[in-house]
Design a protein that fits this description.
The chain is built from 10 helices and 16 strands. By secondary structure, it is α+β, with helices and mostly antiparallel strands.
Amino acid sequence: MTDIEPSAPEPAYPDFYVCDKAYGTEMNFNDCQYLAEQLPTGTGLVPYTYIRSRISNKQTFILPLRRYRVYCALKIDIAAPDINGDIQFLAKPIDIHNLAAFLVEKCVSGLGVGGFATLQFARVLDWAMDPSTYLYGPIPAEAAFITVSIVVRRTDFYPGIYDPEVAIALWGASNIAAALLPENGPDEKAMLARAYAWRGRAHQMTRGSSAQSWNGRNTHIFPSAVDEMTYECDSNLGNPAIADCAHIEWTQLGHPSDSLTVGPEATFFHSNTCTLAISAAVTIVLLWQQIQTALAMLMDTCIQFPYQPPRGGRGYYNPQPVKVSRLKDKRQSSVTGLNALPPHANITIFEQREGWTNASAELDSCTWKAALEGQPTKPCGTG
């Protein structure tokens, strides 16, 4: 299979599509094309009725809709994870028809896999980027959007609820929204914490699985209690490069569902200019997904946050773990949010200035001792 340029229009931002083998590899192009061609092509807005307890295979404007051919399935859903009753949704039939045709050409014919596309994704983005949105409450009907899927017949995925690309899109949009809000104001801090919540959720999700949804609130990513963890940026920790810290994030950490035992003696991970230290006041077990989420938040808060120079940072539950209090230092900034790590656990990223030898040597290094004391690491080494 080779990538092709479909004749049907590609979804326009903020809508998006995903082609992936998780949605099937055994579809027949003719069967899929037939299903797409049967959809109406009207250009006016019509009401699509979402009935949660019902699946339709004949009535075009009743959702969820399921239509099958021998080696293909067409599925149209409203992504509405918290809605218990029936709702109506205005959409143009031609838009849904075109999405199905695009998926058949782009995913099935071009790549030999299934896929899905979104329609009116801006509705959930408007909800996610509104600083007044209460993140921990039910998602309203106004934030629902449509997904069109072309998949292998035996599957029954709900990609608008369970595909990690949704969480990734929400993470990116919330980051953009944070950059447009007044700097260091409460709305910016709340939006930044929200962005990391979506990114952490994306780490938890697996394409093709319904184990985790992007709006799940029964894990540490969306805790019901008020967040107490602080993410603090500190110029004393130097200027680690984002590429080096990202290399640690994506190549050195374990599988999200696996665990790491940490204690008072820090565990280190290193890549060029960036060193990651994980420790705890008492010996505890952390999931790698907790570490990934906390690291991601520190990276975006301190290293690549718009309009601020890159700095190292630390994440911890109050009180802060360093031995001297420097929170009044104008070179520092902090935001409270996203309880990625449990109490007692600490995470620090800092610039490696002495040259990396090994984890044992790092425990006695000038750089790490300075980081623990809240002192500048710049005098260490010649970096």
